[in-house]
Design a protein that fits this description.
- By secondary structure, the chain is mostly beta strands.
- Helix content is about 10%, strand content about 50%.
- It is built from 1 helix and 8 strands.
- It has one helix spanning about 1-25; strands spanning about 65-70, 80-90, 100-115, 135-150, 155-170, 175-195, 200-205, 210-220.
- Strands 1-2-3-4-5-6-7-8 form an 8-stranded antiparallel barrel.
- The N and C termini lie far apart (about 80 Å).
């Protein structure tokens, strides 16, 4: 009787083992949900991200970016301005193959107001009835070399060039002075971009003529 019971147990175990092995070999068999891998900071590695960090030298597809920035220009006097810019990636994986970098061009337009020399330029010895001021209109283009330190953070070096049309106005005594003059514009500017979400980023940089800039960027 005990031998019969042992035989039943052995046969039952063998059948269970064969059934499990067959299920493992079945293409429709799944042992459970597969893990989802994400880059540090919660951003999924993909064409809209910066990749895994500065050492990620795999292929990337950088998005185009539209930016709206406030600035504090100081070339002709201290003032305040607004800039609209549109970044277009040109070399998605940059010029250094071993690190995570890219190169892009960025057409821009800046409109700014300034106090034209702290309220003294152009007044001469006769004095001014009101403080002189000027409007600046600067269309141009920039080259941005970017370095991606995480899926959220990149730093860049920008070279900007364009033409500033300076419209100056002041009243010197009884004489009104209005003059519009174009000037070449060029500067270097380091900056940073922090991706708040996959579509929105905060951006800031500083240039030797355009001053401090800061605002928001939209990844398209």
């Amino acid at each position: 009787m005990s031998k019969l019971a042992s035989l039943i147990v052995i046969l039952g175990g063998s059948l269970l083992f064969v059934q499990a092995a067959s299920a493992q070999g079945d293409p429709g068999y799944s042992s459970g949900p597969q893990p989802v891998y994400a880059a540090p900071g919660g951003a999924t590695v993909g064409p809209r991200s910066a990749g895994g960090g500065i050492r990620d030298n795999g292929p990337h597809a950088r998005p185009m970016t539209a930016s709206a920035l406030l600035s504090t220009p100081w070339r002709y006097g201290f003032g305040i301005g607004v800039t609209g810019a549109f970044e277009i990636p040109i070399v998605h994986d940059g010029f250094i193959p071993s690190i995570n970098n890219s190169f892009s061009i960025e057409p821009f337009l800046t409109i700014a107001w300034n106090n034209y020399g702290l309220g003294s330029a152009g007044c001469g010895l006769v004095g001014c009835d009101d403080n002189p001021h000027a409007w600046e209109y600067t269309p141009g283009v920039a080259g941005l070399w970017s370095f991606y330190f995480s899926p959220r953070l990149r730093a860049y070096a920008a070279v900007r060039a364009g033409v500033t049309v300076l419209a100056v106005r002041h009243d010197a005594g009884f004489e009104r002075f209005d003059k519009t003059t174009p000037y070449f514009f060029g500067e270097l500017a380091p900056g940073i971009v922090w991706n708040v979400t996959d579509n929105i980023a905060l951006r800031a940089d500083i240039g030797w003529w355009s001053g401090l800039k800061g605002g928001v960027s939209f990844l398209l």
